[in-house]
Each structure stands twice: as C-alpha cells, then as structure tokens.
Amino acid sequence: MKYLLIPTDFSANSWNALEYAVRFFKNESCTFYILHVGDLNESAVIGNSFALPREKTSPSINEKLNTVFESIKKGPVNKDHHFIALQEYGNFIDIMRKTVKDKHIDLIVMGTKGASGLKASVVGSNTGDVITKVLCNVLVIPENAPSIIPNKISFPTDYNLFYTHSILEGLNEILHISKADLHVLNVAQEEREPTAAQKRNKTYLQDYLSETFPESHSFHNISHRHIRTGILHFAAENKIDMLAMVAKNLNFLQQLLFDTTIEKVSFHTQIPLWVLHE
Question: In the CATH hierarchy, which top-level class contains the domain 152-271?
Fold first, then answer.
C-alpha cells in the first residue's frame, strides 16, 4: 500500500494533481490523503483561549471537500484506491511535515502555476517550500500538464552527488510503474574535465541502471550557457514527459526551479517534476 498526500486549495491545479496521481498509480494499491490547510483565523479557535471550539471545520470548506469527493466518485472506480479527507489549520509547512510523519506518506503530489499565478494559488506558492523543507518525495504537476503516463523521463544530474539507496529506489519505483525510458542528462556550462568523484558517481549510476533497466536507459551530455534552458531544450527535442531530480542537490535544482530574487517556484513548463529526497 502506498500513501500519497495531496494538498488542495480547491483550485483546478490541485485537482489536476489528484487526477494525475490517480492515473499514474492506477495499478497500485494507494491511500490518497486530500489535505486542506486553512489559516488559523478560519478555525473556531479564538486567540489563546482554553474554551473548546464550537466546530473545527467551516461549512463552506466541508462543502468544497464534499464536492471534491463527489467528483472523485464520478471517475473510474478502482477498488485498490482509497480517499481520505483531512483538514488542519495553521502553518502549511509544519502541518505538511506532521502529516507526512503521522500518515507515513510516501509521496506528496502538488499542483502549481507559473510565476504569474503564484500569488493567486496557495498550493503553487508553497511548492518551493515543500520541496526544500519537507523530507518526502514530491511530484509537482504544472498547470495544464497532460494527465498521461510518461514514456520518457529525464534525470538531469551533474554527478556531484553520490546516488544513495533511497535515490536509486525512488528512480526504480518511477521506472517500474511507468515502464518509461530514462534519459540521464548532464548539462555542462563550460568545457572541463569531470572530477574523480563525478566519474565514480557516474560509473556507479551506469552500473546500477545497466543491471536493473538494461534496455531502457541512456546517457546524454550537452553544453549550454544556462543549465535550466539546456534541460528544457533537451526535454522539448526529445519529447520528455517527466523530469526527476534529487532534492539534496539544491544548487542544481534551484537553477531549474527558482527565481533567485523572489525564491518562488517559476516553473514555465508543462513537464511534471519528481523530486527525490534521501
């Protein structure tokens, strides 16, 4: 049984994330926790009073959650999929961390908008914080991403990190479920000889993939002045359906995801991103 956490602000983006997750894991036994996090001022708790709250959830939020579950019922029925609604109030990241721990979450699935829509989307504006501050694998579904099982997945890497068991296990799971081809991509900003550590890490990854997915992986090296642009050009030219990256490699990840002036997600692509944590 897999346990997935899908935060919702009842937007089209959060629904797209749920829809994508249901389709991706259509052949897996899963429990989907659909979580809405509201501001404290929306709850019935007033200040620091010890008085018992009259009611924890507001009718409007209950109605919205009911609408989500009615929409789920209208979709294809999968006896191995179970859906549970959760509602909490307070700091979004703190609640995400607590839920991941309490519910033994394997994967967080989040919808997000492009940079122009960040302020309008609670989920979108929190995606960057979830990726960097919550120790759980995250699948980011951009606005308007097609809900398809990926055929080609790219794994951008600079080979500076050692690929731990958890990282390789995460890649293994993605490839096992999707049956996709993996394109390992190194984007170099300048011509330089790889370090001894980079060579060792690359060889280790090659050996692992040759043993586990001998017919469905390839390695690519390209040069580009901007790493982010190089990755997206490669994705477009090779019809990549998903990107997989390691969260620990923050410098590399930020070049793809973050505008350094506002430190918010600026994901101008329709390609889902799977972020792997150790």
Answer: alpha beta
Tell me the two tokens of residue 31: 């429990």
| Same fold yes or no, 2-142 and 152-271 | yes
Whole-angstrom distance, CA of residue 264 vs CA of residue 278: 23
Question: Which string of b and e fits 146-181 if b means at least 16 CB within 10 Å?
Answer: eeebbebbbbbbbbebebeeebbebbebbbebbebb
Q: In 3-state terms, what secondary structure has residue 120?
A: helix
Give the residue extent of every domain in the chain: 2-142, 152-271
Non-local (6+) Cβ contacts of 217 within 8 A are 181, 182, 183, 184, 209, 210
CB contact at 8 A, 152 and 241? yes
According to DSSP, the residues that pair with 221 across neighbouring strands are 186
Query: First-to-last CA distance in the chain?
Result: 20
Q: What is the DSSP string of 129-151?
A: HHHHHS-SEEEEEETT------S
CATH hierarchy code of domain 2-142: 3.40.50.620
pLDDT tens for 181-212 read 999 999 887 778 899 999 999 999 999 999 99
Residue-wise pLDDT for 124-176, tens only, equals 457 878 888 899 999 999 887 888 899 999 999 989 989 999 999 999 999 99
Nearest to 60 by CA among 42, 41, 74: 42
Instruction: State the amino acid at position 82 in one-letter form.
Output: H
Cα torsion 133, 134, 139, 145: sign: negative
Would you call 226 helix, strand, or coil by DSSP? coil
22-32 per-position pLDDT tens digit: 999 999 999 99
35 membership: H or E segment, kind and range = strand 30-38
